[in-house]
Write a structure and sequence with these properties.
57% of the residues lie in helices and 5% in strands. By secondary structure, it is mainly α. Bound molecules: iron/sulfur cluster (SF4) (2 copies). One iron/sulfur cluster binds next to helix 8.
């Protein structure tokens, strides 16, 4: 059974990811100079960060295993535990979502207050007391819309207050990623400036 933490504990727990985000922003933008940031990005440590991560999981310490076990138990008991409370990247994406041209619209005139939308929301967002849902906690799963029994009471609204087909979001995301990928390839920004030999040297030093 998925637990739904009560509001008084949900709110302080949600704030952890914003504190972590603030910590990273503070150190990157206020404690590091542009030259230091560039030096870090080009450092051997950062160049093979993905392989280091793989090694971290292939050869886990006791602390790593205990932490992972706790996270698995918490994630099984509380939906989206990691993204919801601890992920600073999730916090950043949630804040950027305020600029999204898409939002969930709630029509209070046709709503029958069955609360199916709120009961199904994995992020425990209060939906029915708003006409436009803008929450950094919303993960855009659209489960609330699919569970609403009254057609038109809850729907996705796009630019110019137009009702849009919900699949516009995943399809639009894939198209946007493809456009960026094609643009990067066309302008020679897709390939790495680091020669493959340098990567080979760094990888062999790790294993
Ligand atoms: S889209 Fe998902 S996360 Fe957002 S309010 Fe609806 S059910 Fe909750
Ligand atoms: S599921 Fe639809 S009808 Fe029921 S409370 Fe939510 S918006 Fe209203």
């Amino acid at each position: 059974m998925i637990l739904r933490p009560p509001k008084w504990i949900n709110l302080p727990l949600c704030s952890i990811k914003y504190l972590l985000l603030g910590f990273f922003i503070y150190f990157i933008f206020f404690k590091m100079s542009p030259l230091q940031v560039e030096a870090f990005l080009k450092s051997p440590y950062n160049l093979v960060a993905d392989v280091k991560m793989l090694k971290f999981f292939l050869d886990p310490s006791r602390i790593t295993l205990t932490t992972l076990a706790c996270l698995v138990v918490l994630s099984v008991s509380i939906g989206n535990f990691w993204c919801r409370y601890l992920c600073p990247y999730g916090a950043l994406l949630g804040l950027l979502a305020y600029a999204s041209p898409f939002q969930i619209k709630h029509n209070q005139e046709t709503c029958i207050n069955c609360m199916k939308c709120e009961k199904t929301c994995p992020m425990s967002i209060e939906i029915t007391n708003k006409t436009i849902l803008r929450s950094p906690e919303c993960i855009g799963c659209l489960d609330c819309i699919s569970k609403c029994p009254v057609k038109g009471s809850l729907f996705l609204q796009g630019p110019c207050n137009k009702k849009v087909w919900p699949f516009v979001i995943p399809i639009g995301t894939i198209i946007t990623i493809l456009i960026f990928w094609l643009a990067a390839r066309a302008t020679n920004h897709w390939t790495s400036a680091i020669p493959p030999e340098a990567f080979k040297q760094l990888y062999s030093a790790l294993f």
